[in-house]
């Protein structure tokens, strides 16, 4: 057996994966190994530092459960989630609404509600109206499109984080009408910090980074024959728009409040979906 060196070991490891029968898995593993080894060589990673890294990843796994996804939070704060999202959606037509991050607080099974319903329930906060239209990127309205909506309370907590809540709150699903229009009520969102009581919070503190996300409301918009859109609307004037801790805010998704019916502030936004196959 040839003597291993800091340079020769990479080729040997890659050779062990050369017989992988799945070409995509083989490609991903080869690139991952090459980059990891190059990283270790570049910074001259010490055993103590790598042990600290393993302990960190172990802690991320231990704190993750059915209500908290620390690995998604780690990916988000490293900008990897945003990069993967950009790569996955860069072929979208220019007229389509820009995507944004799903985030770690999405829940399946939000109740479907009638137009005009209030997703805030008993949540205290200033009510707003959200309305607009869903259309194809070519401008044709889409009746029956499904909007899955969720957001944090003005306190900055999602229902999953609030020990006082047992069920879903500030979540709902809505169908567009025959003209592709939707409308519902909610409360004004506020900027909030990502969870700081775990290993990702410790990493942000050690790096001297703030943990705040700008105020926003999440959407998944889906319709037959169209690409599913995962996005969010960000509130104009929020001081964290340009320094979102998870790199999710987009200029094209910034919206302002306008005075609507019944003396409520309103947000109007028209979603445009790419057709499947683009």
Describe the structure.
- This protein is α+β, with helices and mostly antiparallel strands and 278 residues long.
- The protein has two domains: 8-45; 73-273, Sandwich (Protocatechuate 3,4-Dioxygenase, subunit A), CATH 2.60.130.10.
- The protein has helices at residues 8-16, 23-43, 47-63, 70-77, 80-89, 199-207, and strands spanning 127-136, 146-150, 171-175, 181-187, 192-193, 212-213, 216-222, 229-235, 254-255, 258-259, 265-273.
- The strands form three sheets. It has a five-stranded mixed beta sheet with strand order 3-2-7-8-9, with no helix packed on it. It has a four-stranded mixed beta sheet with strand order 4-1-11-10, with no helix packed on it. Strands 5-6 form a two-stranded antiparallel ribbon.
- A hairpin with a 6-residue loop joins strand 7 and strand 8 (229-235).
- The longest helix has 21 residues, at 23-43.
- It is globular.
- The model has no long low-confidence stretch (mean pLDDT 95).
């Amino acid at each position: 057996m040839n003597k291993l060196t800091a340079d020769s070991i990479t080729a040997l490891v890659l050779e062990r994966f050369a017989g992988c029968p799945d070409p995509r898995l083989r490609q991903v593993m080869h690139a991952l190994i090459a980059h990891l080894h190059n990283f270790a060589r570049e910074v001259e990673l010490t055993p103590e530092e790598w042990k600290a890294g393993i302990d960190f990843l172990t802690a991320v796994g231990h704190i993750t459960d059915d209500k908290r996804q620390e690995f998604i939070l780690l990916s988000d704060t490293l900008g990897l989630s945003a990069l993967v999202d950009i790569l996955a959606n860069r072929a979208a037509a220019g007229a389509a609404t820009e995507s944004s991050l799903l985030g770690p607080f999405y829940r399946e099974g939000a109740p479907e509600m009638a137009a005009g319903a209030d997703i805030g329930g008993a949540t205290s906060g200033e009510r707003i109206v959200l309305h607009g239209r869903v259309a194809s990127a070519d401008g044709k309205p889409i009746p029956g499109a499904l909007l899955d909506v969720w957001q944090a309370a003005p306190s900055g907590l999602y229902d999953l984080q609030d020990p006082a809540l047992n069920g879903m709150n500030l979540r709902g699903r809505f169908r567009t009408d025959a003209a592709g229009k939707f409308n519902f009520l909610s409360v004004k969102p506020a900027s909030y910090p990502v969870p700081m009581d775990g290993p990702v919070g410790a990493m942000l503190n050690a790096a001297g980074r703030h943990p705040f996300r700008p105020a926003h409301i999440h959407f998944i918009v889906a319709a037959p024959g169209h690409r599913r859109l995962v996005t969010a609307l960000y509130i104009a004037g929020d001081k964290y728009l340009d320094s979102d801790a998870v790199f999710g805010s987009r200029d094209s998704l910034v919206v302002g409040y306008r005075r609507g019916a019944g003396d409520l502030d309103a947000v109007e936004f028209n979603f445009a979906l790419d057709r499947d196959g683009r």
